[in-house]
Amino acid sequence: MTPKISVIGIGYLGAVHAASMAELGHDVIGLDVDPERVAALQAGRAPFHEPGFDELLRRGLASGRLRFTTDYADLAGAEVHFLGLGTPQRADGMGADLSHLRTAVAALAAVLPARDGADTLVVGKSTVPVGTSRELAETLEQVAGVRLMWNPEFLREGFAVQDTLTPDRLVYGIPDPGVRDQRVEMLDAIYAPLLEAGVTRLVMGYEAAELVKVSANAFLATKISFINAVSEMCEATGADVTDVARALGMDDRIGSKFLRAGVGYGGGCLPKDLRAFLASAEEHGVGEALGFLREVDAVNERRRTRVVTLAEEMLGELAGRRITVLGAAFKPDSDDVRDSPALDVAARLLEAGADVRVTDPEALAGATRRLGPERVVAGTTAALHGAELVVLLTEWREYRDLDPAATSELVEAPRMIDGRNVLDPRDWAEAGWEIRSLGRAP
Ligand code: UGA
């Protein structure tokens, strides 16, 4: 079988994209330089926790439309190549590391045949600083007939399959949106079922497409930090931030999503993309315009410190005190612990000398890597046993549904910090708990 599509880089984004494209009926080959990842996916094992992905993967493999490789030579026959490589934060803390992307593009260019007549399309999906598409296009267009588009991905972890197959919109970046471009029809043919289902696609210049993605994530981070800044004001004045957020969100112009106050945002995207956007703005001489993003980052950081201060207010000295942290993943329905607020707070409590236990329904492996096995406990009941303070930092359903009376039987002392504002403080107080929340005065 000659694949029609290749997906280079089958991490989170790439693997979901590859399986989704097979689901749309295309013949797809996914490539990664990590042989273990390739072997796992080829054997139908998902290397991450994502609702709906396992079925999609197995269906793709069983249909014969989906396979995986480590060898770039296997990609040569495909007509469309998606780039799903990661763009991690650079070691200096600012800016995106584009080395994986550049290496992959060079390796791809080396195997692509020069074609007469039929074009080969390369489609970037990674989150990149503005200007990257034009740079990569130069490398690729040295091979006759090879053209680049930028088609940023907006999927959320936990909803990755749904977001890929029913996106809010498709963004196509091309070098010159003022002229008719065959690339648009080629990508339309790949996404035909989505377009037929009514998904809007927007064609724009490379730079605009790159900026849509980074500004979307910066906006989401700003919205979260906005409500978290208001929650500092609430704590100082006795207001309840959940009341404020609920009423604010009913204004259509504001909207209720991403107004959940708490310990703030984490994950592999929002924190790093915000810093990369700032670094890129500075490189382009407009650092001042986006300087407020530094404050967005600082508000987010302060919420983590605030949990530690609250713990001190409740326990006095932290050294030797038994604290249970509920949650390790950066958000529920994910096993991802990259820049996880929960693990960061757990590490800070440990540094302060507390005897910390962390639990999570899915992210125990990640928690163990970060904190060591002696700090990680499987199962909520076991983790709560003997706690003098419980700190809820990832709002898994299981934690939201905890019964205050039953939970108080398990702990040493009924003290709770609700770092996500998901528990009803009255219910918990009535059951004898001392409960504090981020954004609600005691
Ligand atoms: C984010 C974006 O939402 C996606 O659109 C984007 O495609 C993705 O990054 C990416 O660039 O790949 P994701 O990192 O999966 O997706 O997670 P989000 O659902 O955005 O949550 C990010 C963080 O914000 C989590 O730690 C979450 O707990 C926190 N959050 C979210 C809040 O603290 N309050 C809220 O109201 C919402």
Automatic annotation (TrEMBL):
The keyword Disulfide bond does not apply. It catalyses: UDP-alpha-D-glucose + 2 NAD(+) + H2O = UDP-alpha-D-glucuronate + 2 NADH + 3 H(+). Residues 324-425 form the UDP-glucose/GDP-mannose dehydrogenase C-terminal domain. Its EC number is 1.1.1.22. GO terms for molecular function: UDP-glucose 6-dehydrogenase activity. InterPro entries: 6-PGluconate_DH-like_C_sf, NAD(P)-bd_dom_sf, UDP-Glc/GDP-Man, UDP-Glc/GDP-Man_DH_C, UDP-Glc/GDP-Man_DH_C_sf, UDP-Glc/GDP-Man_DH_dimer, UDP-Glc/GDP-Man_DH_N, UDPglc_DH_bac. Keywords: NAD, Oxidoreductase. Pfam families: UDPG_MGDP_dh (PF00984), UDPG_MGDP_dh_C (PF03720), UDPG_MGDP_dh_N (PF03721). Pathway: Nucleotide-sugar biosynthesis; UDP-alpha-D-glucuronate biosynthesis; UDP-alpha-D-glucuronate from UDP-alpha-D-glucose: step 1/1. Belongs to the UDP-glucose/GDP-mannose dehydrogenase family. This is UDP-glucose 6-dehydrogenase. It comes from Brachybacterium sacelli.
